[in-house]
Amino acid sequence: MIRKVLSKLSRFSAKRAAPFRRSVQAPIKVSFAPHTTPGIHTSSIDTSFLSGETTDMSRCGIGFIVSAIRIKENYLVGHDRKLIAEIELPNGKVKMTVLGKRYEKVGLHLSTERFMIGAEIVEMTAHDREVFDNFIKFGPTKRKAGKESFESI
Questions:
Q1: Which end of the chain is flanked by fewer CB atoms within 10 Å, N or C?
Q2: Residue partners of 5: CB distance under 8 A and separation at least 6
């Protein structure tokens, strides 16, 4: 009996500790952030990128699916490699710097093999953060909190 109550309590607290994740499929474009090495100049930005779609988003991270785990010879996850992610949300385009944390293969067959990547949000501009947080909180159908919309009659 006590074990059952403790189990329910721990599940409840675990749900409360995790940030709210909005499940959404939005187009995403992923490329590498400029790489800096101490003592050496910053490498030039490569124009290579991968397109995919998001699976879910929270205030501190995103999940997305892409067709490959690397661009050229560089892996998207690992080595503290920062990525630039551009997401097309219904309320505007958002650009952020993310850090790939984990990945897994998805797809039943080699021809449909894709990779789901979980990434932590590292940096955003104030405007992009506002648009992103508004989307996470209210979804695609709500307007920005505190602003009323006037319809012409």
A1: C
A2: none
